[in-house]
Q: What sequence folds into this?
């Protein structure tokens, strides 16, 4: 059997399932859907499937620079390569001087403290101004009630 473009289609059929094909020869595993994934300290992303298979999907790469201080800050804790930083050397975690990953942990250094502190001061000043308005309104209502008596 040959499809319209001339490539052979062998051993594929469809049995009582509207959207899946089934081969006559299987590798012993039923169809599986990825249910979750995990990341190892070496940067491997591993998929956990509904059919019991555990299979590597991808690997996280890290970039090293001759002069990390020369990177251009582009905002939101993101940086870009510059002529002062040198070209990125892409490597695997734990190799060539790159650090290892720590899966399932939260890094607090990705928060811009200056921005967060500024936003907190603005919110505190807004709260303070609103509380003064409430106090002034309360005093005005007390004065109005005093005039009525």
A:
């Amino acid at each position: 059997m040959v499809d319209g473009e001339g490539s052979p289609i062998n051993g594929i059929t469809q049995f009582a399932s509207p959207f899946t094909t089934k081969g006559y020869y299987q590798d012993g595993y039923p169809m599986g859907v990825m249910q979750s994934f995990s990341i190892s300290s070496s940067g491997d992303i591993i998929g956990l499937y509904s059919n019991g298979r555990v299979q590597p999907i991808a690997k996280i790469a890290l970039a090293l620079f001759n002069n990390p201080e020369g990177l251009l800050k582009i905002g939101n804790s993101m940086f870009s390569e510059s002529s002062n930083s040198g070209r990125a050397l892409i490597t695997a975690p734990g190799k060539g001087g790159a650090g290892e990953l720590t899966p399932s942990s939260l890094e607090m250094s990705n928060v811009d403290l200056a921005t967060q502190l500024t936003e907190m001061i603005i919110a505190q000043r807004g709260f303070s101004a609103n509380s003064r308005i409430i106090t002034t309104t309360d005093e005005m209502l007390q004065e109005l009630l005093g005039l009525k008596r």
